[in-house]
Each structure stands twice: as C-alpha cells, then as structure tokens.
Amino acid sequence: MNPHLNLLQPYPFQRLRDLFDGLTPNPDFAPVNLSIGEPKHATPEIITEALKANLGGLASYPTTVGVPALREAINQWLQRRYKIPALNIEKAILPVNGSREALFAFAQAVIDTSVPQQPVVISPNPFYQIYEGAAFLAGATPYFINTTQENDYVMDLTQVPADILKRTQLVYVCSPGNPSGKVIDMEAWKTLFELSDRYGFVIASDECYSEIYFDEVNAPVGALEAAYKLGRDFSRVVMFSSLSKRSNVPGMRSGFVAGDTTIIEKFALYRTYHGCAMNPAVQAASIVAWNDEAHVIENRKLYNEKFQSVTPILQQVWPNTQLPDAAFYLWVDTQQDDTFVARQLYQELNITVLPGSFLARQAHGFNPGKGFIRMALVASPEEAIMAAQRIKGLLE
C-alpha cells in the first residue's frame, strides 16, 4: 500500500461521529444539523429539467475536457462575474466533477518530488482537509499558516521562513474562507502574487463559496480578477469553482478550473488518465446553471435572511459572534472547550455543529480552531432560527 496513506487523519465528520458515540440527543427537540456544508435549499427547476431532458447523453462516453458549449458558458460567466477578458476555452478552462476532487487531484499533477529537498504545500489553518491529504498523497509536506482574529483570518505568507518558501511548490488559498468566511482583499492578493513570482510556487485558489455573499454590489474578489486588476497575467494561478453552493446541486458534482494555460494543459492530460470526465447530462444542466443568475440571487437572499436573523440571537450568549464576509458559515468563538460545546448542543438540544479544533492542526504551538465551533446555516430559515433560539435558551 502507498505509505503516504498512513499520514491521512480521520475526516472531521468521522471524528464527530466518534465524539457523539454513546450520546442520546434530546428527543424533545427535532434534529437540526448545522455541521456539514451541504446546501439544503431547493435545486432550481431549470437545472433539474435540463438534467431530465438530456438523459439520452448517457449513451455516449464524455470527453475529459467537456463539450465546447460548457466551456463557453463558463467563459461567459467568468467575464460577467469577474470583469476579465475572454479566456481561451480550449486551453484555459477545464470542467471537473466538483471542486473537491479537482483540488485533491491538482497536487498530484503539480508537485515535483524529483527535487533535492522535500516539496512543501502551504495551507491555511483551519482548513478544508482535502488540502492536507492532497499534499501527503503527492509526496509533499504541508506547512500550515494559522489564521486567527489577530491576522484577520488571512494567511500572512510574509511570516513564512525563506527556507520554507524556497521549497514551496503549491499554495492553497480559500476565499471566501472555510470556516471563517473571510474574503481576501487586493493587498493580500498582491503580496501572494509577488511571492509566487519570486519563489515560483503555484496558487490554487479555492473559490467554491464565491457566490454566497451579502452585498449585491460588492462580490468577493477572485484570483483571476485580482491578477487582471493588478496588471498581472495568470501565470501559476488556477482558480477552482463549483455549482454545488451557487446553485444548490452538490449531488451533481459539477465545477471547473481555469487559469494558467500551461498548468491546465498538464492537468487535463493527468485527468485523461484519471478517468474523471463529466456526465453528459450533468454537462447540459451545468450549461443552464452557469447561464442563469436569477436563481443565484434568490439563493443569496435566503442566506442573508438567515444570517441577519440568527447572528443577533447568538450574540446574546456568544458576544464575539460576527457576520462573515461571505459563505454560509458562522465561525463562533465560544470561549469554551469546543468539543464540550458540540457534545452539549447535541445531547441537550439535538443540534449538530462541528468543533473548530477538528478543522485545524496543532501548528506553531497551538490549534487555532480550539474554542470555536462551525455552524453551517444550510437548513431552512425556520430551522436555523429555531436552533439559535434553543442555544440562547440553554446558555442564558
């Protein structure tokens, strides 16, 4: 067996099941699951109808690069959303089966283990656990940058030792962030690009939460948009996006990568062997989804309603609770042991949340997720408000 598999840690939700082992949730309350970032809003009918109308495509093998119409729909969306010039749909855009598998596979294509010193992959901490697993399975060593209130939950690469940066081949960036919801500003992007130019590492920008935000005139800045605004090309920059959160279709497994044409070309070659072409019916439905913005605006309104209702309730018992910049998580500083809080909410209120320490690693002397819980406001507005009121009643 691949010895790197022994480096993988249990996934946070397995740890959560172990944490709850032996506990019986209070039967007086209906269960509310706020632990996993799985959208619960209804899938738009235009997408489900497109899926059904194109089931005949199942009789054909799909290509790895997808049909031109899908790549063009993504291209048009990128231009509308980020105000960037048109990309070459043959070389700069590649459909993928959701951003998760692409983020994981990307490291296998990028990391060069033939170099004299062990390659490094930089990741925020807390983080999406895929980044760590991808680094290990690619034969690299993860280096974590703690993101805390002190650094406004943004990775500060200027604090990374030069000897680490010299070995760094890949940096995972998540904006809006998971779990903080923090959006990286232009100054941070500028610093990141400058360091990439100096040390030659690739930037993998995870933007799967980019379409959940609260101000319709101030959408989160993306990596390609930032590069274009700063007068830089897309060298060593690849963005990852997905329909899962944007369009409430996590089961469709549809996303894309876009950016540096040389990297995309090599990644497409890797994926040809990987055997991960997108289902033709899913491609057809994805075209419809990327071409429609009305359902996305309605989706944002639902999340905004929940955040505006839930946050003030929780602030009465957890005063440090803050609205995120974007995404659908509340990153709550409980000022207590986060595993104790998670067990208490589950056992006494039948509410499931994720301990923050499960999303982070001990790095530079501490675990930056310790004391926090992540609450995914993916349930209905009624359920989310009900859960907040239960918590307030218990903790008061």
Strand percent estimate: 5-15%
Number of strands: 12
Distance between the termini: 52 Å
Named at the architecture level, the CATH assignment of the largest domain is 3-Layer(aba) Sandwich
CATH superfamily of the largest domain: Type I PLP-dependent aspartate aminotransferase-like (Major domain)
Protein model, in words:
The model has no long low-confidence stretch (mean pLDDT 97). The strands form 3 sheets. Strands 2-8-7-6-5-3-4 form a 7-stranded mixed β-sheet, sandwiched between helices. It has a 3-stranded antiparallel β-sheet with strand order 9-12-11. It has 14 helices and 12 strands. α8 links the parallel β6 and β7. The protein folds into 2 domains: 141 residues, Aspartate Aminotransferase, domain 1 (Alpha-Beta Complex); 248 residues, Aspartate Aminotransferase, domain 2 (3-Layer(aba) Sandwich), CATH 3.40.640.10. Helix content is 40%, strand content 14%. It has 396 residues and is α/β, with parallel strands linked by helices.
Topology:
Blueprint: H1 12-19, E1 32-33, H2 45-53, H3 68-82, E2 93-96, H4 99-110, E3 120-125, H5 130-137, E4 141-146, H6 162-167, E5 168-174, H7 186-199, E6 202-206, H8 223-229, E7 237-242, H9 243-247, E8 255-259, H10 261-274, H11 280-291, H12 294-315, E9 329-333, H13 338-349, E10 351-352, E11 354-355, E12 372-376, H14 381-395
Parallel strand pairs: 1-10, 3-4, 3-5, 5-6, 6-7
Antiparallel strand pairs: 2-8, 7-8, 9-12, 11-12
Notable traits:
396 residues; alpha/beta; Aspartate Aminotransferase, domain 1; Aspartate Aminotransferase, domain 2; 2 domains; 7-stranded mixed β-sheet; 3-stranded antiparallel β-sheet; 40% helix; 14% strand
